[in-house]
From TrEMBL:
Stored InterPro entries: AAA+_ATPase, ABC_transporter-like_ATP-bd, ABC_transporter-like_CS, ABC_transpr_LolD-like, MacB-like_ATP-bd, P-loop_NTPase
Record lineage: Bacteria, Bacillati, Actinomycetota, Actinomycetes, Micromonosporales
Molecular function terms, GO-annotated: ATP binding; ATP hydrolysis activity; transmembrane transporter activity
Keywords: ATP-binding, Nucleotide-binding, Transport
Name used for this protein in its record: ABC transporter ATP-binding protein
Organism: Actinoplanes cyaneus
Domain of life, source organism: Bacteria
Keyword Membrane: no
Keyword Transport among record annotations: yes
Cellular component terms per the entry's GO annotation: membrane protein complex; plasma membrane
Residue ranges of domain ABC transporter in the record: 6-244
Length: 246
């Protein structure tokens, strides 16, 4: 038994060489653990490996070496199918581009993951999730009839409806204005406060400052770890990481 919902040990990642270029390590031995109810942000200079780390932690990308466990289950050595089942049972994803199905209504988008997993989902569960993100009155709207912020809130409702243990968010506020970003971050904060974990990659200092813990990535490794930092603390740590890279 483990009390971590996510654990990574010495994760490395190297992509296959392109043309005659030598392969460059993108992740160089990242170890971390995330507890239930914790909101963790990953920041770092462009190209430092943030998105790659998120995809390796969530099992969407294979590791070159190291170990990742989600809800106490090691991903390495499992078949793609078994990994997908762990993701389905324990993991939710939020992307910068929302990833909603354009031809489906908000209601149908929220119900979709459970339906694809052939898992029962009640109309109450879907309605509750849409109400949680204050979109109860937009259930029949297609994504094209919703603002960016509303679409991202549908994506959050879709995650809430599956009740995951951990939510991975890749730049969830990257395409949103300040007001919509604040709403999305408030919801992610609520997700963590309700006992689920959130791991979010972001460039946004204000977004990072909503997290319990901020990991500053530099050149594929964790350079610093900040506990409940202010946006200024994150800014200073990033400036230091950029200087160290230059
Ligand atoms: N599929 C891939 N094949 C080859 N190289 C890749 C691949 N994906 C990412 N990389 C390289 O890995 C490095 C890290 O990329 P990654 O997207 O993880 O960085 P990031 O910190 O998220 O960057 P940004 O902040 O600009 O989004 C970059 O040099 C990128 O070119």
């Amino acid at each position: 038994m483990t009390d971590h919902v996510l654990e990574a040990q010495s994760v490395t990642k190297q992509f296959p060489p392109v043309d005659d270029q030598p392969p460059t390590p993108v992740l160089r031995g990242v170890s971390l653990a995330v507890f239930p109810g914790e909101f963790v942000a990953i920041v770092g200079p462009s190209g430092s490996g943030k998105s790659t780390l998120l995809y390796c932690l969530s099992g969407l990308e294979d590791l070159t070496s190291g170990e990742v466990s989600i809800a106490g289950r090691r991903l390495s050595g499992l078949s793609r199918r078994a990994q997908a089942k762990i993701r389905r049972d324990h993991v939710g994803f939020i992307f910068q581009s929302y990833n909603l199905i354009p031809s489906l209504s908000a209601w149908e988008n929220v119900a979709l993951p459970a339906r694809l997993a052939k898992r029962a989902i009640s109309a109450e569960d879907v309605s509750r999730a849409l109400h949680q993100v204050s979109l109860g009155d937009r259930a029949s709207h297609k994504p094209s009839a919703l603002s960016g912020g509303q679409q991202q809130r549908v994506a959050i409702a879709r995650v809430l409806a599956t009740r995951p243990d951990i939510v991975f968010a890749d730049e969830p506020t990257g395409a949103l204005d300040t007001e919509a970003s604040t709403q999305v971050l408030d919801l992610l904060r609520d997700v963590a406060d309700s006992g689920r974990s959130v791991v979010m990659v972001t460039h946004d200092l204000q977004a990072a400052a909503r997290a319990d813990r901020v990991l500053v990535l530099r050149d594929g490794a964790i350079h610093r770890e900040l506990l409940r930092p202010t946006a200024d603390d994150v800014f200073d740590a990033l400036a230091h990481a950029r200087k160290a890279v230059a």
